[in-house]
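Batch manifest line 432
LIGAND: magnesium ion
JOB: complex structure
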Amino acid sequence: MSSPSNQHSLHHILSCLSDYDPNALPVARAQDIIRQFVTPIHAVEKIALRQALGRVLAQDIVSAINVPAHDNSAMDGYALRSDDLPLDQSRTFNIIATVFAGRAYDGEVNSGECVRIMTGGVMPKGCDTVIPQELTVNANASTVDVPAGKVSAGDNRRLQGEDLANGKVALAKGRIISPADLGLIASLGIAEVPVQRRLRVAFFSTGDELRSLGETLDDACVYDSNRYTLYGMLTRLGCDIIDMGVIKDDPVSLENAFRSACENADAVITSGGVSVGAADYTKQMMADLGDVAFWTIGMRPGRPMAFGKIHSGGKSAYLFGLPGNPVAVMVTFYFFVRDALLHMMNATVTPLPLIPARSSSAIRKRPGRTEYQRGILGTAPDGHLEVSVTGSQGSGILRSMSEANCMIVLHHNQSKVERGDLVDVLLFSGLI
Ligand code: AMP
Ligand code: MG
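JOB STATUS: finished
ARTIFACT:
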């Protein structure tokens, strides 16, 4: 949907790369190229705070107040002057007032005096320390004994602005708003938030063997599952989706689908029809409509992939032509598309942490490609993190993905893993 810009074409970027081989492209290289080519979309809308969960913050949120507004007590107890704290034996203080949460005592507190104070009560003038109620003895309505050595100067006092200081950036633009952020924004008294508009992502499946839900499953056919995993992943990422269904493998249907997707969406995702031997029109149509590279990536699953930008009716859209195999779709989405879409959304993308875990079995692996095995990460009886592979790892076996809670990342240069070796694991939960 974005209009054509004056950025470099993909083929220009590719021609500037040394040792670029589309037929043996390492994962990291493909990620770099995508990163270089994809540009953020600048479109901001203001929405009610509750609607902002999961959206990308479009401007810094600057605090216009101090949170908390005053020094206040972190405990139920007695506020006093730290000069008065007894050094060796307990000391009796006169209780001159009581302060509840959200209230203040305007009077001065002199030496030998204290104020009974509840959590959140404003610290009275002269007081800098709170002794919790349970550390005192012999408390009655007018006096309380404070034993020596229980608290130090400044204890149990929350400082003005210690959570959020007036004039400081409370949240930087680009972050994906979390439940904690919602609370933080609310604590500043802000009811509306500027966020990036949602990305529009169109997708369709290609392959004459595919049937949609509700249709009869003819012999030798399979139900289309890719549109459902894509729906799930894109929804989690906060995109508006346009599900265009299964597109028949004929040039007219494909051209119409690509053109309509391009004219209505920021990005287009297809699955199927990009493998080397594919006897269909998908690749041809992608090439005809834009600036598209066809790659064989050094990875498993998910070797074939098309990436670029297509144009139609004065509009353009980034194109991700994913392989057809259901596991390959998810893996290529997570390792290429996700990052690109977050970048288009102007989100600040921090690399997801790889967690080292012990492998519960040997895993075969050839150097020269990145492998993503589906794993179940848990804690072994000896307390160490341990990961086991979820059965058969065929790229058509979606159950391997469904049972897994993580991906075991076997890096490009890595070779065979022995039982008990540490392997890198990426948790699904961090992928949104
Ligand atoms: P392709 O990449 O088109 O050669 O497809 C590879 C394999 O994935 C074939 O076995 C297809 O039947 C299967 N496949 C392709 N698209 C889908 C889909 N949308 N849902 C489920 N399986 C698919
Ligand atoms: Mg196919």
